[in-house]
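Lab notebook, bench 4. The sequencing result for the construct came back, and we need a structural model before the next group meeting so we can plan mutations. Quick request posted to the team channel:

Model the 3D structure of this chain.
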Amino acid sequence: MRALSISVLAKDYSERGFWRKLVDFGRTAGREVIEKALWLFYAAERPETPKWAKATVYGALAYFVLPADAVPDITPLAGYSDDLTVLAAALATVSRFVDAEVKAQTNRTLARWFGTSR
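Done. Here's the predicted structure in token form:
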């Protein structure tokens, strides 16, 4: 994604929409997709994460939340592959902000939703 499209997507992001998507489609999307989305979300919520990284994260999360994307989420097996690709690209860009605390916070959330963490 180009920087312009990320900033446009970031404006469409809403925390409420993010949590709604996770709750409604978490089991369908699968643990791996949800884990990556939560890593990004919790990293962006930290005050020390710079604005450029937050914009990247919120752009990726907006893509995840918005119903219109390259591969419709209702498509069997492949529906969340594009979402995972976008989340992975954002993670590669902001990975230094996904620290042990972010991962621990994510694991606690995943344990509540999916059972014991890995």
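The radius of gyration is 13 Å.
Will bring this to the meeting.
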